[in-house]
Amino acid sequence: MIETLRVGAIIVLVVLGLFFTFVSATGVLRLPDIYSRAHTASQADTLGAGFALAAVALAIGWGTTSYKTVLLLFFIFITNPTAAHAIARAADEQGIEPWTTDDDRTDRDLYEAADVEADGGVAVGGADTPGGEPE
Amino acid sequence: MTTTPPLAFLTGDIVTDVFLGAAALFMLLAIAMFYRAIKGPTTQDRVLAVNVLGTNTVVVLALLGAGLGEPSLLDIALVYALLNFLMAVAISKFTVERGGVL
Question: Which positions in chain B touch A45 (Cβ < 8 Å)?
């Protein structure tokens, strides 16, 4: 009886983890700008990973390896929102504006409106950034 | 005549199948992150996509460690989670010229 309960709880936790990770993946793929994507990545993904790791800890049982899983769970709960916060703050420092509902610009337009350098060091927004062709 | 009780299929054998199947589905969701990592458009979008991909990889490693019965994969998952966090914070600090990110 207790074994049936344990296996049922494991399956429920794995399905919940899959659901929240699916929500997170959909959000990162479909939300309009970097800030809302960081939002879904920090919340839904942390919860999905937490549920899946709780299922793993429950399956391994009370032992010497189970505490590693619990440690991993707490570590992800602390570091994942921190990383998303750092990423969103880096975007804010670069001057990328948040998208609002009465805004018909895409994330590409918002990126080009910000005065940042593209990956190859070529200026996208402003024309007077250093590193261009000498006069 | 014996009747099988309901929920009799919930034995320990099914847990391995559930973990391996869930690892495959998590892998698919991780591969979907490559779309955002390639398309961008901002550098932070790419870093965020790789960060979510790394979190999914940690979960896949833990699920495989439990499903295949290899506890050493949990150690690899711990190291991977550490490196994933360091990567996100380091690139975030690196892309900003001045000012603290954290």
Answer: 52, 55-56
Contact call for A34 and B42, based on CB within 8 A: yes
Summarize pLDDT for A20-34 with one digit per residue, the tens. Answer: 999 999 999 988 888
Residues whose CB falls within 8 Å of the CB of residue A15, separated by 6 or more in sequence, listed in order = none
pLDDT tens-place string over residues B12-23:
678 888 899 999
* Closest A-chain CA to B94: A90
In angstroms, the separation between the Cα of residue A135 and the nearest Cα of chain B is 25
Cis-peptide, bond into residue B41, ω within 30° of zero: yes
Does the interface ipTM go beyond 0.85? Answer: no
Band of the pLDDT at A113, cuts 50, 70, 90? confident
**CA-closest candidate to residue B40, choices A34, A36, A104, A39:** A34
Among the partner-chain residues B15, B74, B84, the one whose CB lies closest to the CB of A65 is B74
Put residue A115 in one of left, alpha, beta given phi > 0 → left and psi -120 to 50 → alpha: beta
pLDDT band for position A94 (cuts 50, 70, 90): confident
Question: Distance (Å, rounded) from C-alpha B77 to C-alpha A57?
Answer: 13
**Is any Cβ of chain A less than 8 angstroms from the Cβ of B42?**
yes
B11 touches chain A (CB under 8 A): yes
Q: Cα separations (Å) of B3 from A7, A92, B14, B47? A: 21, 64, 21, 56
